[in-house]
């Protein structure tokens, strides 16, 4: 009976009620949106990497290593010796080790030099393995695997040649045009930075960046041999036959050294001296801290190891302040809207004196009128919560694909029921608390009406 009375009372003031509902819907929708984005953003951060126990890199700090190696947002300042990779790859506690090197790009997308075992061991989300939409992992030098977003946005297909650029900027003036790579695989979407990366072998990266010192040394040897052969030929110029024979011999010797120089360059191209870091999977997770301590105290290279989960928590703590500020702002807006509702109910008290008198004449006591005002306020909030939920849900369904395409952020289009129940209970609790003022006003007016009748 009271529910019906409260509902009919609200209908009699429909225009004022609609304006109040509108402000409540906006504030509640903002609260739902901020909470959903907060939880989804954190989940998105956490799904970027899994199954990797340690990330080994130069001593740049936990967050810098994480941002550089996983998110490709900042460059890794130092490097890791190849001998360090060989040492820990053979470590008894290590189950697998995947080296990687960064520093190149293609049209703004990060190029990662690594081994084919990357596609076998690197995981994301809830230990989900990488899978191929088309093609296969690279097997030879000058082959590349594209992330899903790279292939989709640039319109690349299998067996297409692309040119990698030096540096990580979106615009580069140094291109490795003499070493084009052939696309042999395209990965399925993951919702992680993998989608925005291009993967090539370490040999490909080394071929694009040959060591000038080794090449120069080889060429200088050739020059010394050539000068020596020329002096010997000049001193024996009176022997025509011997001169021709010596010239042929030195010519063959020179070609032999040129071939040796090519072998030096090719050998260096396939064996890097330095890399950016190593992803490590351990034979037993309980050895994580032990190996991390061993890496941090490694004497032969200035390296450190980070635990991805710990670094992710540190990273999230950096943005926790902004997250809290957004929630506080949403809460303030909601409280303002609820006070607006209370003001509306209070302002209507004078207009409802006749209504209250009739209800008193019909036997409604002050407590009954108090409860009826509380019901009116709660009905407004419940209706606003339902409309706000429908509004946010519709926006998420429409916007989620666009956000994934343009920003690489995969949001769930469905708000968790537990979040709705929790936030709805908070809103209703605040409503009942703030509605005490108009409810007390109705109670007092009911007592005044009763006393004046006497």
Automatic annotation (TrEMBL):
Pinpoint the ABC3 transporter permease C-terminal domain residues: 328-445
Localization, UniProt: Cell membrane
Segments of skewed composition (Polar residues) = 221-236
Q: Does the keyword Membrane apply?
A: yes
What are the entry keywords? Answer: Cell membrane, Membrane, Transmembrane, Transmembrane helix
Keyword GTP-binding in the entry? The reply is no
> Which positions, given as ranges, span the membrane?
15-34, 324-347, 368-391, 411-437
Q: Which residues form the MacB-like periplasmic core domain?
A: 18-209
Q: Which InterPro entries match?
A: ABC-4/HrtB_transporter, ABC3_permease_C, MacB_PCD
Query: Chief localization class?
Result: membrane
Ranges of Basic and acidic residues composition bias in the record = 237-269
Ranges for region Disordered = 221-269
Q: How does it sit in the membrane?
A: Multi-pass membrane protein
- One of this protein's Pfam families, by short name? MacB_PCD
**What is the name of the protein in this document?**
ABC transporter permease
Q: What is the lineage of its organism?
A: Bacteria, Pseudomonadati, Pseudomonadota, Gammaproteobacteria, Alteromonadales
């Amino acid at each position: 009976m009271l529910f019906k009375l409260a509902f009919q009372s609200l209908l009699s003031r429909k225009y004022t009620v609609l304006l109040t509902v509108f402000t409540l819907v906006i504030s509640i929708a903002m609260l739902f949106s901020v909470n959903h984005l907060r939880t989804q953003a954190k989940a998105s951060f956490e799904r970027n990497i899994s199954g990797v126990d340690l990330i080994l890199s130069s001593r740049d700090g936990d967050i810098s290593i994480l941002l550089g190696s996983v998110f490709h947002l900042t460059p890794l300042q130092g490097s890791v010796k190849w001998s360090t990779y060989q040492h820990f790859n053979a470590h008894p506690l290590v189950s697998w080790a995947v080296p990687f090197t960064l520093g190149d790009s293609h049209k703004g997308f990060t190029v990662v030099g690594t081994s084919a075992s990357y596609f076998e061991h690197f995981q994301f989300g809830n230990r989900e393995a990488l899978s191929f939409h088309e093609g296969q992992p690279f097997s030879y030098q000058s082959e590349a695997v594209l992330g899903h977003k790279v292939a989709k946005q640039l319109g690349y297909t299998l067996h297409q040649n692309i040119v990698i650029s030096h540096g990580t900027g979106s615009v580069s003036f140094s291109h490795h045009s003499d070493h084009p790579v052939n696309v042999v695989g395209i990965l399925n979407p993951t919702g992680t930075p993998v989608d925005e990366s291009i993967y090539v072998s370490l040999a490909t990266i080394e071929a694009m960046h040959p060591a000038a010192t080794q090449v120069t040394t080889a060429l200088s040897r050739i020059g010394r041999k050539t000068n020596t052969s020329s002096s010997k030929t000049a001193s024996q110029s009176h022997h025509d036959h011997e001169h021709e024979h010596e010239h042929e011999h030195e010519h063959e010797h020179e070609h032999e050294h040129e071939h040796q120089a090519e072998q030096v360059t090719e050998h260096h191209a396939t064996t890097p001296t330095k890399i950016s870091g190593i992803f490590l999977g351990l034979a037993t997770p309980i050895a994580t801290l032990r190996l991390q301590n061993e890496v941090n105290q490694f004497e032969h290279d200035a390296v450190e190891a980070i635990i991805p989960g710990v670094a992710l928590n540190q990273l999230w703590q950096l943005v926790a302040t902004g997250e809290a500020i957004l929630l506080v702002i949403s809460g303030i807006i909601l409280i303002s809207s609820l006070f607006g509702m209370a003001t509306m109910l209070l302002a209507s008290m004078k207009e409802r004196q006749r209504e209250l008198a009739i209800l008193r004449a019909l036997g409604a006591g002050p407590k009954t009128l108090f409860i009826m005002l509380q019901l009116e306020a709660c009905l407004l909030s419940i209706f606003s919560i339902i409309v706000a939920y429908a509004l946010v849900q519709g926006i998420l369904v429409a916007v989620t694909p666009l956000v994934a395409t343009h920003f690489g952020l995969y949001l769930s289009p469905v708000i968790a029921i537990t979040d709705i129940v929790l936030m709805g209970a908070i809103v209703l609790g605040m409503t009942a608390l703030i509605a005490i003022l108009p409810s007390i006003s109705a109670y007092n007016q009911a007592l005044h009406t009763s006393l004046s009748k006497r």
